[in-house]
Structure prediction request, 571 residues.
Amino acid sequence: MRLSLILAAIVVMLEVQSSHAFDGPRKSTNVPQFDAAVDKALSYLHAAVEKQEPHGGEQILAAYAMIKCGIPKDDPFVAHAVETAAARSGTGVYRPISAYDHIYGAGVDAMLLSDVDTETYKPNLQAIANYVQSVQRADGSWSDGPQQPGDVSMSQYGILALWACQRAGCEVTPAIVDRAGDFLMKRGNGDGGWGYRPGTTAGPGAGNSTHNMTMAGAGSLGVVRILLHGPKKPPEPAKKEDDTLFGGALTKVELDDEDVVFGAFKGYQAQNSVGALDTRVDRSFSWIQAHFTPISKVEHNLYFYYCIERAAAISELGTMDGADWYVVYGDGLLQLQQQDGSFPTHTGPVVGTSFALLFYMRSTQQIIDKQFGVGRQQGKRGNPFGDKEVKREPTELDLLIADMENLDLTKVDDAPIEVADEIVRSVISIDDPEELVGQADKLKSLMKHPNADVRKSACWALGRTGEFKLVPFMLDGIRDPSVDVNVEAIAALRFIARKPNGFGETLNPLDGIENPTDEQKVKIVNEWRQKAINSWSAWYARVRPHEDQDGFDQLLIAVPLSSKAVEEKKK
Prediction:
């Protein structure tokens, strides 16, 4: 993949091109491994949908995901999808595609049209807003029919539709939004989460809280908060350049009363206070923290990532389980991508791949930055627009690997300690782990070096990236004939898995054993290695994606400690 900087009028975004990537510039995630996943997903998605007729469901969602990636609206598939979505409301009355999907379809239609051109499609969006408001149930929810209880998922799409329409300047009744919030505030579970159809045992979870519905509820309440009270972090005053002679300094611009954001409905007295809404969302994140899993294994697994991106963006979430939530869940999501670039899920690979793209492109954050962008501070990581990129100076590791690429590593055994020490020193010099992630492929080649000191250092360096996708390499490191490499591999797994004590295995298998013979060392170390392989392989089998089977079973077989490794251990 080749990255090049593309300067726009105000923002700077990265152009990502490759032989298999979607043609043309697109936005970047600013995380190399996520960009690679997006490239593959876009290639798959465009090939999968270009043969299908766009309609109110998955193809409209796919076009929306493409727009969020930076694919232009004149792309043939996107343009056809926009035309199809607009046609359903072209007469001033919204005509849903089906009785069941009526709110899902209205939601994706509204989001796509609002993102493409709010001025042109404002009449269409008003028709959608009118329809969505007309079919809201008395308790504030939406459902697939008058005989069915309200459900959190469909209510989410009703709220998303109204938010998209409101951003276009359409008339939305504030009481409708307030009632939607009331439904979620009153019908959640006591543990902080939500079930699919509150008050019933229908659907996944049989009424119990689930990952999907808990984040769908939290994100929906976040949108309600924005509409009723404004964003959690209001815009800061903008700054402009002094245009006087010899000027050039930035001066603060005070916001007028008309510019102050207090929600979309000035003068409306909301029934759901901002404090109550924020507290309820915080409880939902507490539930997610208590049931933390970076790799979603539920029936509709990709839906979770789509929902948590929205909830996290609106709630200004910083960390989850002690790390950047975007990277934690983004790494987990990588494990669900297939070789063809798709992300299969319960409702099919097109929907799943679209949801994955919306997560990686931080689609909700894009909306917030656009709607409330004046003076907002945008974090560099994961910001699809980013600040102007400054050419990065090569790190010590860059220079070291560049030198090594010109060497025959099989002929540097006369100075393996120096090479290993240089790897360690170079990695320590890197402040940003994302820079280290970009060197992972080159570091992996060093794990095949004939000298254990170099393999050990490469294993240590790879472990510092914290990348979940490196777990199979670390498992292979436990099978290495050198105990020192085994120890570094286990330490890396502890870091990646966030298990400081691992599974109780020692990092010094020969500790406390006085004067063991070589045969005893082999026996003790092999038993220790086998136990570590079994424990960590079983853990990986539980958390890895179900589809990721290739090459895993062979890792369960421990490699006997060779006589060469015994000699190395004596050194």
